[in-house]
């Protein structure tokens, strides 16, 4: 049975940044971090990012800052994790994947699980492939479920 892999090549880099052994690419400082599970707003939070992924979050990311780290002061601004739409039908809105992404990205959606049953009913697997291929070039995570 195949095992799921969690990008092991990047995991070591995340640990190195979190522990302060390597500098982050980007550090966002003084943000108001929104905990979407508890509803809390954590004031003056720092976020260290490397390779496009969060490596460290907390009250002081000084240990992750190096000479080439881009530091952004987010004082007074909110930081919210990307939202995930767990089940949706793009075709019901009569939109392409690209147009749907254009509409939801500004509102915080970064991932979506799409059920392509409508396009599958009309175009079969060619339609599902069309939707999948279009999604591959977008700046969001689109997971196409199999009908």
Task: Write up what this structure looks like.
- The protein is elongated.
- It is an alpha/beta fold and 147 residues long.
- The longest helix is centred in the C-terminal third of the chain and has 19 residues, at 117-135.
- β2 (41-50) and β3 (53-58) form a beta hairpin.
- The chain contains 3 helices and 8 strands; from the N terminus they run αββββββαβαβ.
- It folds into 2 domains: 8-79, Urease, subunit C, domain 1 (Roll); 83-144.
Summarize the model shown.
The chain is an alpha/beta fold and 147 residues long. Helices cover 26% and strands 32% of the residues. Strands 1, 2, 3, 4 and 5 form a five-stranded mixed sheet that branches.
Layout: helices, strands, pairs:
Elements: H1 8-18, E1 26-34, E2 41-50, E3 53-58, E4 70-73, E5 78-79, E6 83-88, H2 97-104, E7 109-114, H3 117-135, E8 141-144
CATH superfamily of the largest domain: Urease, subunit C, domain 1
Distance N to C terminus: 23 Å
Q: Please report the first level of CATH classification, the CATH class of the largest domain.
A: Mainly Beta
Strand percentage lies at 25-35%
CATH topology of the largest domain: Urease, subunit C, domain 1
Mean pLDDT: 90
* Helical run tally: 3
| Computed structural class | alpha/beta
| SSE series | HEEEEEEHEHE
| CATH architecture classification of the largest domain | Roll
The total of beta strands comes to 8
């Amino acid at each position: 049975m195949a095992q799921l892999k969690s990008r092991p090549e990047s995991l070591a880099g995340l640990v190195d940044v979190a522990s302060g052994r390597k500098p982050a690419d980007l550090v966002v400082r003084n943000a108001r971090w929104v905990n979407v599970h508890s509803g809390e707003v954590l004031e003056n939070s720092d976020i260290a990012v490397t390779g496009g992924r969060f490596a460290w979050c907390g009250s002081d990311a000084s240990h992750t800052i190096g000479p080439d780290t881009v530091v952004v002061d987010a004082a007074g601004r909110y930081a919210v994790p990307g939202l995930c739409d767990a089940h949706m039908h793009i075709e019901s809105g009569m939109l392409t994947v690209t147009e749907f992404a254009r509409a939801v990205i500004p509102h915080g959606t970064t991932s979506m699980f799409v059920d392509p049953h409508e396009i599958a009913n009309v175009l079969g697997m060619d339609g599902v492939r069309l939707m999948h291929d279009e999604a591959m070039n977008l700046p969001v995570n689109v997971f196409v479920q199999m009908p």
